Amino acid sequence: MIEPFDIEIFEYTYSVFPEEEGVYTIYKEGKEYLQIQKDTESQWLKLDPESGIPLFGLDEEVNAIGQAIAVREKNNL
Known about the structure:
Elements: E1 5-9, E2 12-18, E3 23-28, E4 31-38, E5 44-47, E6 54-55, H1 60-75
């Protein structure tokens, strides 16, 4: 199990909590902010807060958070 960790992007600190396989709950400034899931090697998806269904569409912030997660996980293997 991967332990929660922090990443810094866009001058914010995000707390990342790994959930079930490939899903991460993200906290921003101490408040639950969003859930994301890996789509492809370079694309990440925001999950609908009510249904948990992936929302397709380009989101720069979500992709930046996802890329930072991928780099951290790669370095921790």
